[in-house]
């Protein structure tokens, strides 16, 4: 296996809500060796932890069933190995679900290598002195409300899981680029000392981790940045050589575009200091990267550099932080904006009369100021949708916002229409701390027979 | 006469916590020096003053014909607790593109 010169690592998902079919097309026509599903947003693990507290078998990404049902037959037939963080808050439960999907599809007993150890809640709960990165306060301040604490594990333990030979690797929290780097370390025997290769592999992972973002998604602009056949855009892959050579490509016969422009946008995406992008595997420097168009829909990546990995893992701590309530109602025609503004004042007064208090409150006029603010400088549109939202400790106070906005139909300015049902959601807030790596016990267990 | 950032560059916004990062990428490398001179952190701060408290840092990326602007305190307290409709601030790149600059000619 280690004799392979080049491997092809495909991106099958960049969020749990990502589109499904492009992953299947990639497995069918992309000639890939690995299919990576990255499915965890910042607060997903907290949400899944709540699901697990209600049912101990749950807590993995609910999309695991549909995704694996779709790709397992072709992946097992072609020997494409699946790597994913869809284990979320319960990787072992996810592994059992994956094995059941395989059995139900008539694919037999399929082994799953499970990455454990990202759940560090039992470690950090004794370390209230750790500093929250976001506000400098001690972790202690949110510990009583903590729902989950998960370290962003690196490629090393995912590589260890691949070394077992299991066709599927499932983890909880792992840094996004690390999921892609792991197959490269596994195939080519790269170690963390091979910094130029780790850098190239991490850059490739970063380019792939948002799937369609390098193939024309979140990019097009009519008349300015055209994207052909965006409706059928395909997912990307990286062709990686043992020496660290990287070329990004996409599924043949799909729509979208993959070029230096799309890759540059994704390369800088969610990076702060471009010379020091910290992952569990290295501190990546993208400032010297050169992107070149090798052929149609193929972009070469060269010149990634890195410093050695840090001694700490970033840990996301999820905690309950009250409720957000929301309501919306529309006004159209003459004086639409004046009526919407009047309605907002009435709703605020009614909430106050009932004694509700909010930590934060917001009034938006959709069509004017809901995205970029500055309502007083915007031209008045023909119609406008009033949106009111507030964050509060009390569920009742959160519900009252949408309730009072909906009541604008009968108890507000003339001609209100189309109010939505009152919306309330639990706030799962996330803050982070740094935890020394030597305190974390990342490990691999295999479910099923190899 | 003036030009907009939109005329010379494309952009994408990303999020981490309460920080937004917005890339500005030249269509043509020959405009990089002009943007380096004119699209200062101060000018960007002015355009974002009603949205972000800052500070704002600009990281030059000449190799990529680009700049990376890192705008702190820009996302209503952070993605997980923000009351905004666009909690990730994905649409904020369009505030950047609308910034007007003196004519480069």
Give a brief rundown of this model.
Chain A is of the alpha+beta class and 450 residues long. Chain A is built from twelve helices and 18 strands.
Shape of chain B: elongated
What is the CATH architecture assignment of chain B?
2-Layer Sandwich
Q: What structural class do helix, strand and pairing data of chain B support?
A: alpha+beta
Integer average pLDDT of chain A: 96
Quick one: biggest sheet of chain A? 10 strands, mixed
- Overall, the morphology of chain A is globular
The main β sheet of chain B shows up as: 4 strands, antiparallel
Q: Kindly provide the name of the CATH class of chain B.
A: Alpha Beta
What is the mean pLDDT of chain B?
95
Identify low-pLDDT runs of chain B: none
Query: What is the CATH T-level topology of chain B?
Result: Alpha-Beta Plaits
What string, H for helix and E for strand, traces the elements of chain B in order?
EHEEHHEEHE
Q: Helix amount of chain B, in percent?
A: 10-25%
- Please indicate the percent range of residues of chain A in DSSP E strands (runs of 2 or more): 25-35%
Oligomer: heterodimer
Report on the structure:
The complex is a heterodimer of chains A (450) and B (105). In chain A, the strands form 3 sheets. Chain A has a 10-stranded mixed beta sheet with strand order 11-12-8-7-1-2-3-6-4-18, with helices on both faces. In chain A, strands 5, 14, 15, 16 and 17 form a 5-stranded antiparallel beta sheet that branches. A 3-stranded antiparallel beta sheet of chain A has the order 9-10-13, covered by helices on one side. Chain A has 2 domains: 6-118 and 153-310, no CATH class; 319-430, TT1725-like (Alpha-Beta Plaits), CATH 3.30.70.1120. Chain A has helices at 21-29, 44-54, 64-78, 91-104, 121-124, 155-163, 176-188, 195-208, 260-268, 336-353, 395-406, 408-411; strands at residues 6-13, 34-37, 81-84, 112-116, 146-151, 168-170, 236-241, 246-250, 277-278, 282-285, 290-295, 298-302, 305-308, 312-332, 360-366, 383-392, 423-436, 443-447. Chain A has 12 helices and 18 strands. In chain A, helix 7 packs across helix 8 (195-208) and helix 10 (336-353) runs antiparallel to helix 11 (395-406). With 105 residues, chain B is an alpha+beta fold. Chain B is built from 4 helices and 6 strands; from the N terminus they run E-H-E-E-H-H-E-E-H-E. In chain B, the strands form 2 sheets. Chain B has a 4-stranded antiparallel beta sheet. A two-stranded antiparallel ribbon of chain B has the order 1-6. The model of chain B has no long low-confidence stretch (mean pLDDT 95). Chain A binds chain B through residues 42-43, 133-134, 218-219, 221, 224-225, 261, 264-275, 286-291, 303, 321, 324, 360-362, 364, 366, 370-374, 387, 389-391, 427-430, 432, and chain B through 10-12, 14-19, 21, 23, 25, 50-51, 59, 61, 63-66, 68, 70, 76-81, 83-86, 90-92, 94-95.
């Amino acid at each position: 296996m280690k004799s392979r010169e080049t491997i092809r690592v495909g991106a099958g998902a960049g969020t749990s809500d990502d589109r499904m079919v492009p992953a299947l097309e990639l497995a069918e026509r992309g000639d890939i060796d690995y299919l990576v599903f990255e499915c965890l947003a910042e607060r997903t693990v907290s949400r899944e932890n709540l699901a697990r507290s209600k049912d101990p078998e749950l807590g993995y990404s609910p999309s695991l069933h549909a995704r694996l049902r779709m790709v397992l037959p072709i992946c097992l037939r072609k020997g494409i190995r699946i790597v994913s963080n869809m284990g979320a808050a319960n990787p072992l439960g996810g592994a059992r679900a994956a094995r059941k999907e395989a059995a139900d599809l008539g694919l037999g007993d399929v082994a799953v290598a499970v990455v454990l150890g990202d759940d560090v809640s039992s470690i950090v709960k004794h370390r209230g002195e750790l500093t929250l990165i976001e506000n400098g306060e001690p972790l202690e301040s949110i510990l009583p409300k903590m729902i989950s604490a998960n370290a962003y594990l690196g490629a090393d333990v995912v590589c260890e899981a691949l070394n077992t030979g299991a066709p599927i690797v499932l983890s909880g929290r792992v840094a996004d680029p690390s999921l892609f780097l792991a197959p490269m370390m596994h195939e080519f025997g790269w170690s963390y000392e091979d910094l130029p290769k780790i850098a190239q592999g991490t850059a490739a992972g970063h380019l792939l981790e948002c799937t369609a973002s390098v193939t024309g998604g979140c990019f097009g602009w009519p008349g300015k940045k055209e994207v052909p056949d965006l409706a059928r855009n395909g997912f990307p892959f990286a062709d990686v050589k043992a020496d660290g050579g990287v070329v990004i490509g996409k599924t043949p016969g799909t729509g979208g575009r993959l070029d230096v422009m799309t890759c540059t946008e994704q390369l800088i995406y969610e990076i702060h200091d471009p010379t020091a992008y910290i992952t569990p595997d290295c501190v990546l420097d993208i400032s010297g990267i050169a992107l070149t168009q090798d052929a149609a829909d193929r972009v070469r990546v060269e010149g990634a550099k890195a410093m050695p990995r840090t001694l700490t893992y970033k840990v996301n701590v999820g905690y309950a932080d009250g409720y957000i309530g929301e309501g919306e109602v529309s006004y159209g025609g003459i004086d639409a904006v004046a009526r919407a503004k009047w309605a907002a004042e009435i709703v605020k007064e009614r909430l106050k009369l009932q004694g509700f208090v909010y930590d934060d409150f917001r009034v938006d006029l959709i069509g004017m100021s809901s995205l970029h603010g500055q309502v007083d400088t915007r031209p008045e549109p023909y119609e406008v949708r009033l949106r009111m939202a507030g964050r509060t400790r009390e569920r009742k106070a959160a519900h009252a916002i949408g309730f009072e906005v909906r009541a604008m139909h009968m108890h507000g300015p003339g001609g209100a229409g189309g109010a939505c049902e009152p919306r309330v959601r639990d706030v799962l807030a996330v803050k982070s701390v740094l935890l020394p790596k030597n305190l974390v016990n990342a490990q691999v267990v295999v479910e099923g027979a190899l | 006469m003036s030009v907009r950032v939109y005329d010379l560059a494309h952009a994408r916004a990303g999020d981490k916590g309460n920080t937004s990062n917005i890339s500005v990428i030249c269509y043509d490398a020959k405009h990089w020096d002009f943007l380096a001179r004119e699209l200062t952190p101060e000018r960007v701060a002015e355009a974002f003053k009603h949205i972000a408290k800052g500070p704002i840092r600009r990281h030059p990326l000449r190799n990529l014909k680009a700049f990376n602007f890192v705008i702190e305190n820009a996302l209503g307290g952070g993605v997980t607790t923000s009351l905004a409709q666009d909690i990730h601030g994905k649409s904020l790149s369009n505030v950047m593109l609308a910034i007007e600059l003196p004519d480069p000619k």
